[in-house]
Amino acid sequence: MLYYLFNYLDQLDIPGAGMFRYVSTRASIALILSIIISTVIGRRIIDMLQKQQIGELVRDLGLEGQMSKKGTPTMGGLIIIIAILIPTLLFCRLGNVYIILMLVTTVWLGGLGFLDDYIKVFKKDKEGLHGKFKIVAQIGLGLIVGIVMYASPQVVSRERVEIKQGAHKEQVDLYVENVKSTQTTIPFVKNNNLDYESFVSFMGKNSEPAAWALLVIVVIFIVTAVSNGANLTDGLDGLATGTSAIIGITLGILAYVSGHAEFAQYLNIMYIPGTQELVIFAAAFIGATIGFLWYNSFPAQVFMGDTGSLTLGGIIGVFAVLIHKELLLPILCGVFFVESLSVMMQVVYFKFTKKKYGAGRRIFKMTPLHHHFQKAGHSGIQAVLQKPIRIVPESKIVVRFWLIGIILAVLTLATLKMR
């Protein structure tokens, strides 16, 4: 909203109004504002949650410090959502289709997570919203994102670009037309993007719509996988919040270079007009998570609940799809991926050994993986298979996972040159 106001003031030659045309200016202000909002309203929302006795339900799983978390306010994801939405609405160009899709994603998954938390807290149902309803909602979001990307004339890209500097026009690889594309970036591979249409080329004239249908399926899978991965990671104070902030910084950089003609040409990646606005959304996302971390760091004064974790994961997944970098997510979201993988491995191995030996066995002492380091080991052969024996303090686990997340973020950015 303020973008349009200052744009109007700039037309009236008001000094200083023109700076709001720059993405860097608006992103910087959005970052600062989101931090202020999340820290200022965070305290008030926490107090409100405490008055309403909206506390975390904790099962005794034998983890160090676990029972001290009982009664800690949950549903704090509302803080994150508010701190994202307000700067985005104020400083983004609201007619930009990418911003519209990110706003829809934030509200959609925020509402889904809120409903899940509401059932857990007020209905005293530990299972929360039934899994099939979550899947339906995530499929619905995937359909919306995929269909809008297919139908919107704003969702285009260029393989080669033309750069204009004032009246002077510099030709750079003459292909300059905006095209609808189902291509995406492949990590570590140069001059060879993956085109979803290549998987359905046998369909002839129908291959293009079939490729977009395949992209919708990919979006559904990514939204489901990343949002559930973030949800599983949200088990220690500040773990999911800090990891999401690191991922948000990386996605912001990727959005900036993808939406900047010269950088895209230099890095030999797709130039995607309009995605520079996503930098402002990413700045609000980063500020919201950093501000929330003020209260969520160990020992946590509030938990984000599914309201926050499902929203953060969904935002990350959709954001990556919009800038055609979804194949980088296994690297960038490696912490989420390993947390999810540990749960799947544990379940599969337990069922397999129970069927084969009559008693289920475990690979890890407990999953998701971060809980493995919190639980004491066993004697005998399981002590060998289920190290470490000693309990690692929660704060140290979180910081180590953050460090791993930073390494993965750097590796993700390095893939742009390591090709």
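[next item in queue]
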Amino acid sequence: MSNETLIEFPCDFPVKIMGLRRDDFAQSILDVVIRHAPDFDPASMEMRPSRAGNYLSLTCTVRATSKAQLDALYQDLSSHPLVKVVL
């Protein structure tokens, strides 16, 4: 029962990643996303700085093919040292 999901695959799935605003943040996150979704288009990454400019929010809409793929992506992003929150 724990492997069940309401998501129908394949689908476009947005992942929001937030972390401290650093020069290497977006590239570091892109490297992780590409590892799990090789067809991800880097030009589609949306970036939004926080109001004070201390944090950066990235939205990456990946073509998800399975629950296992999304779980692995979330795990790698959540354990990344530059990431504060993954939604």
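[queue empty]
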